[in-house]
Amino acid sequence: MKSKPFEGLSYFQCKLVALSIYESKDFEGIDKKKIMQSIVVADSYPESEKKRRIWQQMVNDMWGSKKCVEEGFHHYISKRQDEILEAFNYHKHNQCKSECKLCGVIECARNLEC
User: Fold this and answer.
1) What pLDDT does 99 receive?
2) Residues with Cβ < 8 Å from 30, sequence gap 6 or more?
3) CA nearest to 101, candidates 2, 44, 25
4) Residue 95 DSSP code
5) What is the mean pLDDT of the chain?
6) Mean local confidence (pLDDT), 62-84
7) Half-sphere exposure of 54 (CA within 13 A, CB side)
8) HSE of 69 in the Cβ direction (CA atoms, 13 Å)?
9) How confident is the model at residue 70 (pLDDT cuts 50, 70, 90)?
10) Which of 27, 68, 70, 92 might form a disulfide with 62, Cβ 3.0–4.6 angstroms?
11) pLDDT band at 101, cuts 50/70/90?
């Protein structure tokens, strides 16, 4: 398991992971506007700070998720980021031809319009 959340991920992959997690049932009831604003702000940061900005907002929001608190924030993200990226890689490899939830997250990450 990775020692830090988002370690080894590109910034785009980081956005995919964050947006996917906000779509999960663990984050039901948590306002997505703050993470979207954090991504917009992070886009203007130096490359070395972008992922940290998203992580800071996620930490604030994870306090509202019982599962995140119980598992521990680093463990929660590290465990799920590999699963999420595997799903996106499978999706990309199989060239989805429909409007599925993964397509929506990818488009959102590209356009920042959820």
Assistant:
1) 67
2) 22, 61, 64, 65
3) 25
4) T
5) 83
6) 90
7) 29
8) 7
9) very high
10) 68
11) low
Rounded CA-CA distance 79/42 in Å is 23
**Tokens encoding 5:** 């959340």
List the structure tokens of 37: 């604003």
d(CA 58, CA 87): 21
Q: Give residue 114's pLDDT.
A: 44
In the block, residue with structure tokens 């992070």: 42
Distance of CA 62 to the CA centre of its chain: 12
Q: Could you tell me the pTM of the whole model?
A: 0.77
Q: C-alpha 84: how far from its chain's center? A: 9
DSSP 98: S
Task: Say if residues 65 and 27 touch (Cβ distance below 8 Å).
Answer: yes
Q: Convert 22-37 to b/e letters by CB count within 10 Å (16 or more is b).
A: bbeebbeebeeeebbe
The two three-digit tokens of residue 114, written as one number: 């959820």
